[in-house]
Design brief:
Layout (H helix, E strand, L loop, with lengths): L5 E3 L4 E5 L2 E6 L6 E2 L7 E11 L6 E2 L9 H6 L5 H4 L14 H7 L4 E7 L3 E7 L5 H5 L4 E8 L2 H11 L9 H6 L7 H11 L1 H11 L4 E3 L6 E2 L13 E2 L6 E10 L2 E4 L2 E4 L6 E7 L1
Parallel strand pairs: 12-15
Antiparallel strand pairs: 1-16, 2-3, 3-4, 5-6, 5-13, 5-16, 7-8, 7-9, 9-10, 9-11, 13-14, 14-15
The chain binds zinc ion.
Zinc ion binds next to helix 1.
Length: 277
Amino acid sequence: MTAMNEFNLDKMSTELVGGLAQYKIGDPGQEIALNPLIGRPVKLLFKKQINCTHCGTTVKKAYAGGYCYPCSIKLAECDMCILKPELCHFSKGTCREPSWGESNCMIPHYIYLANSSGLKVGITRATQIPTRWIDQGAVAGLPIMKVSTRYQSGVFEKMFAEEIADKTDWRKMLKGQIEEIDLLDKREELFQLFGDDLDSMEGDFGAGQVEILEHENVTLIDYPVLTYPEKVTSLSFDKSESVGGILQGIKGQYMIFDTGVINIRSHTGYRIELVSE
Ligand SMILES: [Zn+2]
């Protein structure tokens, strides 16, 4: 039997409770709540084993963010169109796994504005609000459009990205001094700026495919962080088998220690033991 504090890393699961991000880590059903560990010594020990997050096979090196090589070239979730939704090729009949595409991409998506390291635009499925924003370390999020497919959301995101960032500067996000942005104002600005394009694209996609959201409210997100780092030092199991120190907090998918920060998501599939006192 394996102890519950040894598991293959996957992204931390999150929940927004009373405006504060709550984090858990570990195997489903055996997850360890991380918020109560903040301020205490915590160590993550790499067991020198990496497992494919899909099929579980042991690999020397993970591909596509946590997969074995065969899975990385076979699964739809590892295709380039997941990073660049405007490249979705489902309609051409070439989706790697049409049934996966059917239930993950050919469903309603939201285009949102968020403040992570500054203003950004992004897309997500309805079920991933506000998870997606927490994963990015955003302090505020606002859905501005609802569309019928992942592809459509990608087209609009790309258009808005001409004007605003679609990436987060994670070092800046982790320093914690994020300037307030009025996302409602930004929404109005964007709708004015792209008004004509929005109308013509709405026409292209057809009736009922695109909904402009003018009355959504901003979701504010606080993070459980005692102290933000002045200088961001990046830690990795590829450099050290033991990562840890006093857990200063968690933001985005990063655990912040007094010794540096570690991106949990980029170590998907790494088998670790979590030790806390
Ligand atoms: Zn695999």
